[in-house]
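STRUCTURE:
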């Protein structure tokens, strides 16, 4: 809680007994170089009810005992360079709910086992996106990707080697779901 005006060369957390990085009710701005979170017992990166403009360079959240990256009811823009998320089995990859400003990622991968890989929702209006990921994979769980009321764009590129229908499988695989692989409502520019 408070106001940030900070530029950091890098930011890291390893083996946290709780959340790897937590920013709650933060205003101002934060810009970081590489951001790495490894093996927290809880959420990897948690940004909640904040208005700060946040800019993270290449970001990795791996081995989290909770959701890999959680972005809840924020009113500031959140930007990632490459975003890599691989939580423990049974944990969500990216959860973004009720955000009003643009969430950006320039590349990266999200991989989950027995949980949703990407869940981006907003109950009314839309969450603006400028997200381009290389790979999204989910094996098991209810849904692989859940998106409700988004604007802007959400793209999974794969390695770009085959752009025909079906591609070459490098964009990831969603398999063994108990529900829909993708659950989409009110979504624009998904590719």
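SEQUENCE:
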């Amino acid at each position: 809680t408070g106001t940030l005006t900070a530029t950091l060369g890098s930011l890291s957390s390893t083996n946290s007994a709780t959340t790897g990085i937590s920013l709650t009710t933060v205003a101002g701005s934060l810009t970081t170089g590489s951001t790495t979170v490894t093996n927290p017992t809880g959420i990897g990166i948690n940004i909640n009810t904040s208005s700060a403009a946040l800019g993270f360079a290449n970001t990795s959240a791996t081995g989290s005992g909770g959701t890999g990256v959680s972005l809840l009811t924020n009113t500031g823009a959140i930007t990632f360079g490459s975003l890599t998320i691989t939580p423990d089995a049974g944990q969500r990859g990216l959860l973004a709910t009720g955000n009003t400003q643009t969430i950006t990622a320039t590349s990266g991968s999200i991989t989950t086992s027995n949980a949703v890989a990407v869940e981006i929702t907003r109950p009314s209006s839309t969450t603006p996106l400028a997200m381009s990921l290389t790979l999204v994979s989910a094996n098991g769980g209810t849904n692989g990707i859940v998106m409700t009321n988004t604007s802007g764009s959400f793209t999974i590129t794969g390695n770009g080697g085959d752009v025909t229908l079906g591609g070459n499988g490098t964009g990831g695989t969603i398999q063994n779901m108990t529900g829909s692989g993708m659950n989409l409502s009110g979504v624009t520019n998904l590719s």
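REMARK: The mean pLDDT is 94.
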